[in-house]
Amino acid sequence: MERICGKHGQEISTHELIASAAAYPDVLIDLGTGDGRFVLRTARAHPVQYVIGVDACRDNLREASRHAPSNALFLIANALALPNDLRGLASAITINFPWGTLLTGLLADDTPLWATLASLARAGAALEIRLNGGALAEAGWTLASGGQQVRRLARAAGFHLAAPRALTAHDLRACPTTWARRLAFGRDPNALYLTGTYTEVHMDAARMATDQERYNLWHAHSR
Ligand SMILES: C[S@@+](CC[C@H](N)C(=O)[O-])C[C@H]1O[C@@H](n2cnc3c(N)ncnc32)[C@H](O)[C@@H]1O
Questions:
Q1: 101 lines ligand 1 (CB under 6 A)
Q2: Which residue range is the domain that position 133 belongs to?
Q3: Mean pLDDT in the chain?
Q4: What is the pTM of this model?
């Protein structure tokens, strides 16, 4: 995969990725990470967690990636077409205020995103999704119908999500992402929070074979 450090992109191998993450008991993957603020704040607040931010757009990540602490990593990738490198690494996954294909990927019946989320998750991994009401409306959903649809697709993919909760301006101000702040101080703070866990691990033959190799690699590097 391609990691970004300031102006430069460089290839990071599966081996390097697993070896870096294996030094930490917890791995958080933030999809659609934007300018990386959430990843930097989380990595600094939780030095025992390895925090990986993924976004399709590199320009917004130049600054944050230049200041990344050793437990943070920024990757450039389309969340709907992630390579296998991150498979089974995540003890937590966050998606904060998605738009574009990341949002439609969460809402449509026929996209690969939910299968990808399931492939990233360890058993029991936490999933947190924050949805912007304005972006949902542009995609043709209300907060209520969008929340229900995400919950339904999550269940089919092996995640159990609790009933969605509306986020107040106060909640948004406390959430350390740039878009949470924009919404909190905008005219109509209108957002939804869904949280839950991954309750299944779907094992096909290919996953079993590669998982065994990855397991060996992980244990060779974990402290
Ligand atoms: C509204 S911004 C939110 C950024 C950040 N999570 C925040 O809360 O400040 C949505 C982000 O999703 C990213 N995005 C949209 N579709 C994507 C995809 N298919 N794969 C990866 N990132 C995507 C965009 O590049 C953008 O940075």
A1: yes
A2: 2-221
A3: 93
A4: 0.93
**CA 90 to centroid of chain Cα atoms:** 9
Ligand 1 in contact with 55 (CB < 6 A)? yes
Find out whether the beta carbon of 100 lies less than 6 Å from any atom of ligand 1.
yes
C-alpha atoms less than 13 angstroms from C-alpha of 191 in its C-beta half-sphere: 29
CA distance 104 to 101: 5
CATH, residue 112 = 3.40.50.150
Domains of the chain: total: 1
d(C-alpha 21, C-alpha 117), whole Å: 18
**Ligand 1 atom 13: the closest Cα is on which residue?**
32
Q: Are strands 191-198 and 121-132 parallel, antiparallel or unpaired?
A: antiparallel
CA distance 49 to 43: 7
| pLDDT higher at 188 or 135 | 135
Q: How many CB atoms lie within 10 A of CB 12?
A: 15
